[in-house]
Specification:
Length: about 190
């Protein structure tokens, strides 16, 4: 299996010790591992991003776009017990007067609703605060993406405001986005 876990296989891992990533560039979450991306992840990412439940929020990824935007130093594959269940990415604003990072995430639907998104995002956020020395991180879900908003609140993100007609959806119309931010001093860890 390349992607996906049923709740029944994921749930027992909650009590498991933190994954061992020593000696690698991977980042350990409570149960997930964030693994630097490579060409070996392309087909799993395509499977995830083309799933209708993910595509409605991410939209329009083909092989070329996955390679261009999701591989490289700003992307990680999200693994659970060795299986790729999702991806996280970040970008950095390097103007010193506006320095911050922005993040995004997608998990395969089989992995939704088990706290794994919050675990993955928390792990990336911790890396950006502690190892890349950011003080502010933003994320911008669709204003109607209630599960994503709830998951991000769990990590500590707070709503800043609605960005009207912010992004164009798969249906070709412009949708509102919710800007959320998280400051280092407010990160529960
Ligand atoms: C968004 C996403 C990363 C969240 O990860 P997840 O592992 O599913 O979310 P979590 O389990 O961490 O948290 C989900 C929360 O939303 C709640 N929730 C689930 N469905 C919901 C719904 N329809 N409406 C409101 N809240 C909902 C859950 O109860 C949980 O809250 P709780 O911890 O208070 O119980 C994941 O669902 C995903 O990849 N979705 C598809 C792609 C996507 O939307 N990406 C985000 C683009 S900004």
């Amino acid at each position: 299996m390349t992607v996906g876990h049923s709740p029944s296989t994921a749930a027992p891992l909650r009590g498991a010790p933190a994954p061992d990533v020593e000696g690698t560039d991977a980042l350990a979450g409570q149960v997930v591992v964030l693994r630097p991306t490579g060409s070996e992840h392309v087909s799993a990412f395509i499977d995830i991003l083309r799933h209708p439940e993910v595509e409605r929020w991410w939209g329009g990824y083909d092989l070329e776009r996955v390679r261009r935007e999701l591989l490289g130093p700003h992307g990680y594959a999200v693994e659970l017990a060795g299986d790729v269940i999702g991806l996280v990415i970040f970008h950095e604003e390097d103007d010193p007067d506006y320095r911050h990072a922005g993040v995004d995430i997608a998990l395969h639907p089989d992995a939704h609703g088990q706290g794994l998104g919050a675990d993955a995002l928390r792990t990336l956020v911790r890396y950006l605060f502690t190892r890349r020395d950011h003080h502010r991180i933003v994320i911008d879900p669709a204003a109607t993406n209630e599960r994503a908003i709830r998951s991000y609140e769990r990590v500590g993100f707070r709503p800043v405001g609605v960005m009207r007609r912010y992004e164009r959806g798969a249906d070709g119309t412009w949708h509102d986005g919710l800007l959320m931010d998280l400051l280092r001093e407010d990160f529960p860890g």
